[in-house]
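Re: that backbone. Tokens:
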């Protein structure tokens, strides 16, 4: 059985993960309409990943005797200045998510629920990878420069990264892994 505090904290994280998925969906759609099909592909896969992060928590909470609440969500912004702007916002958002997961971990430790703390550890590790990936992407976009040729090459690179990301997601079982 899970304590009320942990149930509340996990439900808040469920909302954040689902909101992340919506934020990246809006970004993917913007990239698709603004001549960055590769970046759009990568962001669409990211949308799926965040949904899986949300579903893992829904199942965990219900399995432990809590009650997962499916939240209402604010509409994400659909306006971006550039591809750099998109990925700067991704990084800022992921840093916020990392901080929120650390908070959730602290609640689990505070309540002496080491089972939940252990489960949340997966998210802590995942965030290290996510932040690193986004920083690398930003470095590459900056290296490509603002010229169309550089951005075109970078977008091709995104297609390769999106394919690898999709394959990794499928290999991990994707949504089936948590169904
Ligand atoms: Fe990228 O955030 Fe989920 O955990």
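Recovered sequence:
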């Amino acid at each position: 059985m899970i304590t009320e505090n942990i149930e509340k904290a996990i439900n808040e994280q469920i909302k954040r993960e689902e909101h992340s998925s919506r934020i990246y969906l809006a970004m993917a759609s913007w990239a698709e309409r603004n001549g960055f099909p590769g970046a759009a592909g990568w962001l669409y896969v990211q949308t799926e990943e965040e949904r899986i992060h949300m579903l893992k928590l829904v199942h965990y909470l219900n399995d432990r005797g809590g009650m997962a609440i499916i939240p209402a969500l604010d509409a994400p912004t659909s306006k971006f200045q550039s591809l750099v702007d998109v990925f700067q916002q991704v990084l800022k958002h992921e840093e916020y998510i990392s901080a929120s997961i650390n908070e959730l971990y602290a609640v689990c430790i505070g309540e002496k629920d080491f089972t939940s703390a252990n489960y949340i550890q997966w998210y802590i590790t995942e965030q290290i990878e996510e932040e690193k990936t986004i920083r690398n992407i930003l470095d590459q976009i900056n290296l490509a420069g603002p010229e169309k040729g550089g951005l075109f090459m970078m977008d091709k690179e995104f297609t390769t990264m999106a394919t690898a990301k999709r394959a990794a997601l499928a290999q991990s079982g994707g949504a089936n892994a948590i169904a």
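The radius of gyration is 17 Å. The chain has one domain: 4-177.
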